[in-house]
Amino acid sequence: MDLTEADIEVKNRRAKKMMLWFGIVSLIMGFAGWTSAYIVSSKREDWISDLELPQAFFMSTAIIILSSVTYFLAKLAVSRNDQSKGTLLLVITLVLGITFIILQFLGFSQMVENGYYFTGPTSNIKMSYVFLIAAVHIVHLVAGLISLLVVLVQQLRGKYMPGNMLGLELGATFWHFLDFLWVYLILFMYFVK
Fold it and tell me: Is 71 in contact with 93 (CB distance < 8 Å)?
């Protein structure tokens, strides 16, 4: 069987997209496990049901949603060969991603100021889960920022153009997943008392 270079390129693109989706599915399974444990633990006698999430978490939610919009617009701009606009939007997405992480740490500080700790004699199981779930999401968002930096560097090198945007598409897919994941997590922690 003789494969042309175009056939190999199509298979390569499909393989890379499939690997990304395998990774995303494994992340979903991990977070499903933590949220399931959260639900099971909510039946404990020492569970705090009237806990309010920090305001910084809600501000960070707005920021990450906005970052998904800017990443989408960056991809759209590059697909229309508006490279400078695409680059600017990728930089804005990076700044918004960093702002999200800063706000998450402010949220942790607000929880500590309210007397809630991850571990120790003054901690409780619910707060430990909130800290854990948010912290693990931050770790994955750092991976998303690294991916975004790679995409930005490649964009500055002129790698992406209409018809050749695989890295940008993969980065955007991962970023949007992280956005949807956080929205799910914040809604989950807000509504599951």
Answer: yes
3-state secondary structure of 164: strand
CB-hemisphere CA count at 13 Å for 25? 6
- Count the Cβ atoms, other than its own, within 10 Å of residue 138: 17
Over the chain (193 residues), the average pLDDT of each successive run of 10 is 68 89 94 92 82 92 98 97 97 98 95 82 82 94 96 96 93 96 94 85
What residues does 164 pair with on adjacent strands?
161
Nearest to 63 by CA among 167, 186, 147, 171: 186
C-alpha span between 181 and 131 (Å, rounded): 16
> What does the alpha-carbon distance between residue 69 and residue 39 come to, in Å, rounded to a whole number?
31
Query: What pTM was computed for the model?
Result: 0.89
